[in-house]
Write a structure and sequence with these properties.
Arc Repressor Mutant, subunit A; Trna Endonuclease, Chain: A, domain 1; Rossmann fold; four-stranded mixed beta sheet; globular; single chain; alpha/beta
């Protein structure tokens, strides 16, 4: 480790000298003292760039010699264990012995690749004058270890694919942001904004693929999924039924906004010849969620039994990824728009549910924000049909009376004029 560290540090120096900053993310590490900061999210969402942006900010006042960056996806470090991690950090202090007396900054990328990493991190955090920043590609693995081993020492920040605003920054679309500043958006300007929205729904927000051609984007996004399957699911959980994992991921991508009954899914899989137990289906769906590929939203109810017994609604990490798995001639853009709202709520840290009124009318999202305030959203891409509009309004009226909430109907028009600005 002492031999390779100078090479890693030299490569890191070269990266930072050519780092242009990229798109400034809408999320930041919180300004809290005495915490280990953890950025978690799916692979390729920009966690490393997020770290580099923080490092670039530090370099305005901190010399590079007090900053250590290591990417544990580097094949030269494999296999990596506690001892190697410890030796790398010790070697950093050996190269710069003055750092024993200075505050240093450790940036450790994809830390979940190091077995029992938390024990080493905890010791350095407790014994050194150091600020520690970690990233990882597994929600469950990191959160479990954070809760059990870092014991309140850390705080997690979730990194998602680019939002619509971030995507427009990436494309340097100045007109989009000028239109967003207008107090009232007329028909002509709305059509321009809506064109940006439709393009975003098709392309998604993975930073690398924003400007790709459709066929290139689809291929790269599918490759992202393959890497997640093998690195974050198969290797981590030692599973052998890869075809089942792929089938479940395709099921999620092709049914966003729809309901998923695990019991029904189990029987469908059995009928197709998959030799599995029901708990295996539950476990594999959990693995997919842990890797940030797909998400299940439960029914809102004060009865835990009702919440657990009702089907979950399903959403994906990115609308571009949905498109990459689409085999239909006419994609369900309405559900893609609903998926976008789901992701926007997740970016804002909302706790999300769906709701069924007593007459079984569905509300897309009941959510609780970081301040504990509850919200109700009904999502509809097109309300030009009067029957559609009345149906959505009636559902919100019933739910509002039952829950004591005032609902908001989210359409492309209200998305730009209200939701994107004020939530």
């Amino acid at each position: 480790m002492h031999k390779i560290l100078p090479t890693l540090l030299e490569e890191f120096k070269d990266k930072m000298s050519s780092f242009s900053g990229g798109v400034k993310r809408e999320v930041t590490f919180p300004d809290i003292e005495n915490k280990i900061f953890v950025a978690i999210g799916m692979r390729r969402v920009g966690k490393t760039y997020f770290l580099f942006q923080k490092i670039a900010e530090l370099l305005k006042t901190v010399p590079l010699s007090r900053i250590l960056y290591i990417n544990f996806e580097d094949d030269r470090l494999r296999p990596i264990d506690q001892e190697k991690l410890r030796n790398l950090i010790d070697a950093f202090y050996t190269l710069h012995p003055e750092n024993h007396d200075n505050q240093c900054y450790l940036f450790l990328d994809e830390i979940q690749n190091v077995e029992n990493w938390h024990e080493v991190i905890r010791r350095y955090f407790d014994t050194k004058n150091v600020k520690i920043y970690l990233t990882g590609s597994s929600a469950k693995l990191l959160s479990k270890e954070i809760a059990t081993s870092l014991r309140g020492r850390s705080i997690a920040t979730e990194i998602w694919p680019f939002s619509l605003n971030e995507s427009m920054k990436m494309k340097q679309n100045k007109e989009y942001f000028e239109l967003r500043k207008l107090p009232v958006i007329g028909k002509m300007n709305f059509d321009k904004l809506n064109s940006c929205l439709n393009t975003y729904l098709e392309e998604g927000g993975f930073p690398e693929t924003v400007s790709f051609k459709p066929e290139e984007r689809n291929k790269v996004l599918q490759e992202y999924v393959s890497v997640v399957i093998f690195r974050d699911i198969v290797e981590r959980h030692h599973i052998t039924n890869i075809s089942l994992i792929r089938y479940l991921i395709k099921t999620i991508m092709k049914n966003v906004g729809g309901s998923l009954s695990t019991n029904k899914l189990y029987h469908d899989l059995k009928s197709q010849g998959f030799k599995i137990g029901k708990m295996t289906v539950y476990d594999y769906l959990d693995y997919i969620t842990d890797a940030y590929l797909g998400f299940r939203v439960p029914l809102y109810s004060e009865s835990l039994r009702k919440t657990e017994s009702n089907p979950k609604k399903i959403y994906a990490i990115d609308t571009g990824l949905i498109k990459a798995y689409s085999s239909g001639i006419s994609p369900n853009t309405g559900h893609h728009f609903e998926n976008l709202i789901f992701l926007d709520l997740k970016r804002k840290g909302h706790e999300i549910y769906y709701y069924l009124t007593r007459s079984r009318r569905e509300i897309d999202f009941i959510s609780k924000d970081l301040h504990g305030k509850w919200h109700m959203y009904q999502v509809c891409l097109d309300i030009t049909n009067s029957d559609t509009y009345e149906r959505e309004i009636l559902a919100m009226k019933e739910a509002g009376e039952e829950l004591g909430l005032i609902g908001k109907l989210i359409t492309p028009e209200t998305y730009f004029e209200y939701f994107l600005k004020n939530n």
